[in-house]
Amino acid sequence: MEKDYFIDTLFDLINESDALEADLQDVHADRDGLTVAMKDGSVFILTLTG
Questions:
Q1: Separation of alpha carbons 16 and 45, rounded Å
Q2: pLDDT of residue 7
Q3: Residue 38: which of 18, 24, 21 has the closest Cα?
């Protein structure tokens, strides 16, 4: 599986998740992974290698 395809798929899953809908502020995809920002100010950086 290509890394870019995996990032795009993971982005879609997080962005469309009903479980995160109330808390999710933004999801940003870049070359190396995803940055997920929550409404409470928490930021998660998911870095993917491969």
A1: 18
A2: 85
A3: 24
Which two three-digit tokens encode residue 2? Answer: 């290509």
Judged by DSSP in three states, 10 sits in: helix
Tokens encoding 44: 């998660």
pTM recorded for the entire structure: 0.77
Cα diameter, the chain: 34
The confidence score (pLDDT) of residue 15 equals 87
Query: In whole angstroms, what is the distance from residue 10 CA to residue 21 CA?
Result: 15
d(CA 5, CA 25): 23
Whether 50 has a pLDDT exceeding 90, the answer reads no
